C-alpha cells in the first residue's frame, strides 16, 4: 500500500513509534510517506519506498499562532494526489486527526476517498486532549476516523471513560525489533561510564513533569547509599534543571551524568543494569520496552499501561506513583546481588519478546484492511 504517516518528528514516544512503524512497513514492501514539519529523528535513511515531505508554515506577522493544522491538511491533500497515497495513518490525535479529517473532506469534494487511521498514544487523551479547550475537537476527530487504535488496553479504557466515543478502539501495542537487538551486549563500552564495581542506572525521557524526574533522583539517592552506582539521565526537557539542582542539594552530582538527547540509546542501554520510569501517567512506556529488549530490568510506577509491559517480579517491579521508598528497595534487591541481576536481565529481555515487530506490525496491516473497506 501507499501509506501517508503523520506524526511528531521529535524524541517523543508517538513519533518514535510512527517512525519505526513506517520503516517496518517499508521493509514489508509498502511505500511510506512521512508528512510532518521536520524529518523524524529516528528516520536516518530515506529510500525508494521511504519518503519525507516537509510541512512548512511561513511566519506571518498577523498571526499570533501560525496555523499548522491548515498547512498540514493542505500538504496532505497535495501529497495524497501527487503520490496516489491510499491511506493516512495519523499518530497522536492533536492536531493530526483533526487535520487528517479536514484533508479527507477536501479530497472527498474532488471525489478522492481515502481512509484515515488514528492511533492514540497517551497524553493526547489523558493530559492534553482531555482539556476542555480541545475536548470537542478531539472527540469529533476520533469519532470521524475510519479506524481508531490505542497503544494499550489501559489507554483504550481511559479514552472510553473520558470521551464520548462511538467508535470501536483496536488495541495495537507498541513494538520493538527484537532481531536488531539480538546481541546487545557485544560492543558495550561500560568502562567509559562507571567503575567495574559500580552498577549503572538509566532514565530516558523528555523530562516533562509527567515523568516525575525528581522521583528518579530520590530513588537513586537511596540506592547509591546501598549499592555503588551511577545514574545516567538521557533526554532534554523542562524538568532537567530542577533535577540537576536536586543532585547538587543531595551532594550526588558527581554520580549523576546528564547526557542530553541521544540517537544511540541502544549503546547506553547496553551497559545499563536498571531502568527507572516512575511516571505520573504512562499509556504504554515505550522507553521501558526499549530497556527490556536490551536486557535491562525496569523499576516503574504502576500507572496506565505500564503493567501491560513491565511484569512485576519478572522483568522488574511496579509501585504506586510517588512511592520512591519502595522503588528504591526493589531496585536494591535487583542490583545488590550479581546472580539476581543476571536473572532479571534475562527475564526482562524475555518479557519484551511478545512485543516483537514481526508480531505487531501485521496487526496494523489488518487495521489498514479494515479501514480501506470502510471508504
Ligand atoms: O510523554 C511522552 O513520553 C511522549 C508521548 C508521545 O505521545 O509522544 O508518549 C506517549 O506515547 C508513547 C508511545 O506510544 C507511550 O509509550 C508513552 O507511554 C506515552 N506517554 C504518556 O502516556 C505520558
TrEMBL record:
One of its GO terms (molecular function) is glycosyltransferase activity. InterPro entries: Glyco_trans_1, Glyco_trans_4-like_N, Glycosyltransferase_grp1, Thiol_BshA. GO terms for biological process: bacillithiol biosynthetic process. Pfam families: Glyco_transf_4, Glycos_transf_1. Residues 193-350 form the Glycosyl transferase family domain. Residues 11-178 form the Glycosyltransferase subfamily 4-like N-terminal domain. Transmembrane segments: none annotated. NCBIfam families: thiol_BshA (TIGR03999). This is N-acetyl-alpha-D-glucosaminyl L-malate synthase BshA. It comes from Ulvibacter litoralis.
Amino acid at each position: 500500500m501507499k501509506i501517508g504517516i503523520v506524526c511528531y518528528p521529535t524524541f517523543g514516544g508517538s513519533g518514535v513509534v510512527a517512525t519505526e512503524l513506517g520503516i517496518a512497513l517499508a521493509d514489508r514492501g509498502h511505500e511510506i510517506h512521512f508528512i510532518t514539519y521536520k524529518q523524524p529523528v529516528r528516520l536516518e535513511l530515506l529510500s525508494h519506498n521511504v519518503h519525507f515531505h516537509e510541512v512548512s508554515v511561513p511566519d506571518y506577522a498577523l498571526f499570533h499562532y501560525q496555523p499548522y493544522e491548515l498547512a498540514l491538511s493542505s500538504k496532505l491533500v497535495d501529497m495524497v494526489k501527487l503520490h496516489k497515497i491510499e491511506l493516512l495513518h495519523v499518530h497522536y490525535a492533536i492536531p493530526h486527526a483533526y487535520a487528517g479529517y479536514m484533508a479527507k473532506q477536501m479530497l472527498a469534494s474532488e471525489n478522492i476517498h481515502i481512509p484515515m487511521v488514528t492511533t492514540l498514544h497517551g497524553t493526547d487523551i489523558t493530559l492534553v486532549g482531555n482539556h476542555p479547550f480541545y475536548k470537542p475537537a478531539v472527540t469529533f476527530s476520533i469519532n470521524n476516523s475510519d479506524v481508531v487504535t490505542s497503544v494499550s488496553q489501559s489507554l483504550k479504557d481511559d479514552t472510553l471513560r473520558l470521551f464520548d466515543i462511538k467508535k470501536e478502539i483496536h488495541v495495537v501495542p507498541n513494538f520493538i525489533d527484537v532481531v536488531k537487538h539480538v546481541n546487545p551486549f557485544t560492543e558495550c563500552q561500560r568502562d567509559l561510564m562507571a567503575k567495574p564495581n559500580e552498577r549503572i542506572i538509566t532514565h530516558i525521557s523528555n523530562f516533562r513533569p509527567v515523568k516525575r524526574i525528581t522521583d528518579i533522583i530520590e530513588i537513586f539517592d537511596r540506592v547509591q547509599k546501598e549499592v555503588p552506582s551511577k545514574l545516567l539521565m538521557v533526554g532534554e526537557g523542562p524538568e532537567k534543571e530542577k533535577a540537576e539542582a536536586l543532585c547538587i542539594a543531595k551532594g550526588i552530582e558527581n554520580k549523576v551524568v546528564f547526557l542530553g538527547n541521544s540517537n544511540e540509546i541502544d549503546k547506553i542501554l547496553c551497559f545499563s543494569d536498571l531502568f527507572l520510569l516512575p511516571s505520573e501517567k504512562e499509556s504504554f512506556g515505550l522507553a521501558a520496552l526499549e530497556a527490556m529488549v536490551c536486557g535491562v530490568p525496569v523499576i516503574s510506577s504502576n500507572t496506565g499501561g505500564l503493567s501491560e509491559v513491565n511484569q512485576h517480579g519478572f522483568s522488574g517491579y511496579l509501585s504506586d506513583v510517588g512511592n520512591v521508598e519502595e522503588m528504591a528497595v526493589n531496585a536494591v534487591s535487583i542490583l545488590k546481588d550479581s546472580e539476581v541481576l543476571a536473572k532479571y536481565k534475562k527475564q526482562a529481555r524475555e518479557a519484551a519478546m511478545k512485543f516483537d515487530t514481526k508480531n505487531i506490525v501485521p496487526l496494523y496491516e489488518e487495521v489498514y484492511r479494515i479501514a480501506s473497506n470502510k471508504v
